[in-house]
Amino acid sequence: MYNIRGNKQSQGTGHRPPGEDSPLIGEPQREEQSSPPDPSTPGKGPSDSPKPTPKSSLTANLIQKAKRQNNTFPLFAEGLTRNRTPQEKALALEQQVLMLTKELKSQKELVRILHKALEAAQQEKRASSAYLAAAEDKDRLELVRHKVRQIAELGRHVEALEQERESLTQTVSLLEQQVQELEQHVQLLMEKNQAKQQVICVLSEKVTQDFLHPPNQPPKPSDAADRDFLSQQEKMEHLKDDMEAYRTQNHFLNSEIHQVTKIWRRVAEKEKALLMKCAYLQAKNCQVESKYLAGLRRLQEAMGNEASECAELLRQLIQEALQWEASDASADGVELSPIREYDEYGFLTVPNYEVEDLKLLAKIQALEVRSHHLLAHEAVERPLRERWAALGELAPSAELKQLLRAGVSCEHRPRVWRWLVHLRVQHLQTPGRYQELLSRGQACKHPAARQIELDLNRTFPNNKHFTCPTSSFPDKLRRVLLAFSWQNPSIGYCQGLNRLAAIALLVLDEEESAFWCLVAIVETIMPADYYSKTLTASQADQRVLQDLLSEKLPRLMAHVGQHRVDLSFITFNWFLVVFADSLISNILLQVWDAFLYEGTKVLFRYALAIFKYNEEEILRLQDSLEIYQYLRFFTKTICNSRKLRNIAFNDMNPFPMKQLQQLRTVHRERLEAELRELEQLKAEYLETRASQDPVVPEGCTSEDEGEA
């Protein structure tokens, strides 16, 4: 124990006396030898330190104690010789040898550690000496840089070793799994072999017993019954052996199936995790690309129409960004689901604009939509689909209302819409009504047929189902609109109905279902005269919206009023076609999901939410022309459906239906009074024109004279 403590002291002093190892094995100690001089330390030799230091005296004391300890060993051995038997002496000596061997190993390990520490200290000393010996700061700086480079290189080497260690760890885990599977397989084979060995042993014992103790009366060969019994017994034994073998095989196969199932589940979970990670990376990539395009657009706006190399380079970058696709960038053949050209209902995800600025905005918006869709797929859409799948039979309820506000998944939307339409028009539906209206249209041409034909080509030019020459949707839309013109002669046809019917066709995919959906919207959901020639109810709703905007968004209304911007120029079409031309398809259909169940109140909620969503952007615009230009396309920049829905159904509360009905009544009465006044002025003007004789200027002829 003294030797160990002495070594600890040597470790603390930085060097170890060479004669300190000898007390471990009980040999006579040698005198201390002076350490060799360090060649890196100038001016110091072996004769420079004649006086003993406290450090060397402490080492000498430890050596003397070790000598005394070793000198007592013969006395101890003599005592063993006197008092113990030879076996006990040998055992004690073996234990002491083991103890000393163990202590020797620890001492050697300590020597090795001290040697490493000494080498590190000497290396540090040499580096410090080189640093202090440098004459200029440049040399010292170069030394520091060299050390930094060495540290960086060692860091990279450590990272490479860490990666190699991780790969080796994964390889080891896979090999361990394989070893476990092989061990289980071997265990099953051993069990099977053991079962067969048992069967063999039983049969061997039986054969031996029959051989040693033959029966007293062996069966007679002529006895057919005994022969049959023996053959049946032999067959039974064979069947038992087969059954045991099949049982063992079945156990083995069940174990294999269990292992395969575990592997499959593990692979499925890993695949799911990889798909989620891939979707997250895709979303991040879309966000980065969107920010990149937005930065290019801001640079383009800042540079204006300058003709310089930077402007040309910027235009080239924008052109490349618009043409870039993720499939071109995947050199390893892995496709990360780039932005699709069309969505589930045939709408273009990136609209084709002629102006380059709008093209850039469309690409930015498509990337943001893709990013939100990928991030919300696992967190929002999957639980929503599961809730719709578990809903079962549809019935009006608060839960259904909340689900419809959250949106219907694509696979359940046709079924839900048919139920919502039937709920509203079941008192109007009669069997064969749609076919009857089609027959009437074939027998007699409707006055609105020409206008319907003109509007067919204008219906959703950004949807492949209405632009493809071979598509059947235009013919279906024509028949639906003609049937409705015969169904409701007071309206006949109004521009905007083609978009309502087109949305119904895209979702329901059946002419008759789309026809009754159009009937439900025009005749049961919207107020009367909404699509009449005067559009009285539509104009009244615009005034109601102005009042609600003043109440809910006073800053915005004060701003647009200051610049004399009339928002009804933008919002009138929103209500007339239920946002069909304004919002992107996935948000538009979520609006329709709630609209078909709750009615026109949803239109006001979403109109207010759209302005609230973009309020800060509008407030930053300080010119009426800029505001109008922004309002033309700002609805297409909305891509976060959850945020818009939260504003519509939470931030806009309270939103009582009673207040909405009162405002509608007030504005409708005022509007009807204004219309009556206009009609009266028109009648007076016509009477005045009729009472006055037409005056023909001299030298001119009247129309009657010209015709004669």
Q: What's the short story on this structure?
A:
The chain has 27 helices and no strands. The protein is an all-alpha fold and 708 residues long. The longest helix has 80 residues, at 224-303.
Helix content: over 70%
Total number of beta strands: 0
What's the N-to-C terminus distance?
143 Å
What's the SSE pattern? HHHHHHHHHHHHHHHHHHHHHHHHHHH
**Individual helix count:** 27
Question: Can you give the mean pLDDT?
Answer: 78
Oligomer class: single chain
**Major β-sheet annotation:** none
| Overall outline | flat
- Radius of gyration, in Å, reads 48 Å
Uncertain residue ranges: 1-56, 69-77, 217-222, 326-339, 700-708
Structural class: mainly alpha
Number of domains: 4
Instruction: Report the sheet-strand fraction.
Output: under 5%
Keywords: Cell junction, Coiled coil, GTPase activation
InterPro entries: Rab-GAP-TBC_dom, Rab-GAP_TBC_sf, Rab_GAP_TBC_domain
Biased composition (Low complexity): 41-57
Biased composition (Polar residues): 1-13
